Every structure is written in C-alpha cells, then in structure tokens.
Request: fold
Amino acid sequence: MPLYRNQWRQMLIEDLLFIRFLDDMERKWVEVFNVLSAGLYPVFYSKSKRYTLRSYASKFTLQGEDLFFEDKKAVKSREEARALFEEFHIAPNGKHLGIGKSRRALCAKYYWFGMTRDIDKWVPECDKCKTRPLALAPIKDNQIVGIGSGSTIVHVIKRLAERVRKENLNVFCVPTSFQTRLLIQDIGLMVIDLNRHLEIDVAIDGADEVDSELNLIKGGCGCLTQEKIVASCAKSFIVIADYRKDSSALGEQWKKGIPVEVIPMAYVPVSRAIQSQFGGSADLRMAVSKAGPVVTDNGNFLLDWRFDQEHNWSAVNTTIKMMPGVVDTGLFINLAERVYFGMEDGTVKIRDKNML
Ligand SMILES: O=C[C@H](O)[C@H](O)[C@H](O)COP(=O)(O)O
Reply:
C-alpha cells in the first residue's frame, strides 16, 4: 500500500509523540495492532526490525478492536495488566497466590509482553506477601547472629529488626558482606566484629540451591567466603530459601555453576585445573554495570564452574580448595542444620539435618 506524504507525517508524529513514550508492553500491543489492522510499521524501523515485528505479529489475531495471542486476550495497557494481576493474585478464598500460581492463573487467560517478568516482580512487592512473617524462632535475647547476603536476607533483616523493636531484644549482628553491613546499620541493628566475638549463636543466610542432604551452592550474588567463615563459626547455621532452590541433587535447579573465589592472578590456572580434573567449564564472572570482571568484597575474582556430571561434593570441595589461588568455594557441605523453604502456596517446608 503506497503511503502518502500526510500519512507519513501522521505516522511520524504518532511514533514520536505516542509510541515512543509507551512502555515496552504497550508499545508492542500498538505495533502488533497497527501491523494486523493496517499493515503499518513504525517509520523509524529498519527492514530487519520490520521483519521481526511481522513474525511476532503473526502469532496474534485481531478480533474487532481486541488482539488475541492464541486464545489469550492480549492486554493493552499497563493499568489493565496491573488490575488483572491484583484480581488473579488473590484467590477467591482470600489467599495470596505465590509466583507460580499467579503466573499459571493469569497466563491461562491473558497475555502481555513481559508478563512473567512483571508477575515475578509484583508478587514479592505485594504488601501482604512481603510482610508474611519469616521463621526466626531460633533467635533469642543477647544472641550473636551471623547475617548472610543476597536478596532473601533483606527480608530476614527487616523481620529481625521488627522483633528486636517489639520484644526489646539485644541482638548483635555479624555481617557477611558490605551489602549486609549497610543494611544492618541502616535499620538500626547492632553490628559487631568476628574478631571480638568468636562464637556466633546462629547464622542465617540464603542459598542458590539446597540438595536433599542440605548441601548448598552459594555465591550467586558474589558473596561466599565471608558467609562460609561466619557459618562455620556459628553453633547453628540456618538457611532460608524459596521452593525454586529445593532440589534432590546440586545442579538440578541452579544452572549458573558453582562459584569459586580466586585471587585475581590465579583465575586462569585455577579455571584450567578445575576443567581438567572435573570437566565442565569454569568461566570468569563478568560484571554487568562495570567493564571487566566482578570483584568480590575481598578484592578477588569469581569463577563459575558449570559441571556436567554428578560428583562427590565433599571431595570436590576439598580438592578445589587446595588449588593455589583459591580462596573458597560456593559449596557449603555439611554446614546447614536446617533449611526453611517458602513454598508457592505460602506454607513453609522445613528440611532438618536431624531428620535426614
Ligand atoms: O552470593 C550470595 C549468597 O551466597 C546468597 O545467599 C545466595 O546467592 C542467594 O541469594 P538470594 O537470596 O538473592 O537468592
């Protein structure tokens, strides 16, 4: 269909004033609608971008003013998506659904670009879900508590601060990373040093994966050495994780490999040694918002070892630790005493060493 000058101008204005200011999901809807209803493409699109848009649009059908992705209604606006989420996240019995169930309920009827990412983000932001109390029963007055790192631990710190305030507890926290130190300080909890308090009553941490024998992979967020030191100085080491980290064997859920902290000059020899002894690939972890590799709180590099078979993890851990230049590994063998899994339906599952 030839385009006349006015049409081009109109499209350009629409592109500049409208489509470009929509967020990704809304823009995709408008673009697919324009392609299917009038064969129109954004004027600034190159040939290859038009091709990509055309194949994406071919998955939709137009019914009147509505778009359907297979038999699911394609949601047009962010407000509509948010309203549908609120409706589906809360079951008819008033129960708040977890990420998986909220996804399944919404994805059965609706579609929008980036919907799983949105649901994964909105569920933990829900006021009720985020204040669901975490199991922190082991902590008592005058205890020294090791505090791990990562995103799960943020909720632990908040809950601990709440208990300290409400129950007027004296709790002394040993952080395992710079992130945790700041969080503890900001929330008003007491920070103490491991040098002065050798014995920790209880250490609490997250994990990337937990196997059926309570072996853990840790270090996905770049912290492992200080976490292992603190866990090993604790009378009991408790892990809090969600159901997606629960597996029967390591590697079943966590696909990013076992982190190994190495001093910078040793990363190539250590990587080669791991690969030649155990197979798989051990790659230097690169930073996302910085050029070059991730640098740990201890000034070291991280290798992520993607293994391709099951191993005796205790033996592997010992062998890797003996390699010159290795600071520590993200394998936490025989350290955790109990793991609390937050399940999809809001319940808590406990795996305890004494019950294995
Ligand atoms: O490197 C970070 C720590 O080992 C974390 O405990 C682990 O990566 C789990 O983090 P998150 O709670 O963010 O899943």
Notes: The pocket of ribose-5-phosphate is lined by residues 148-152, 205-208, 218-224, 227 (CB under 6 Å). Residues 75 and 112 are 5 Å apart (CA to CA). The chain has a mean pLDDT of 88. The two ends are 70 Å apart (CA to CA).
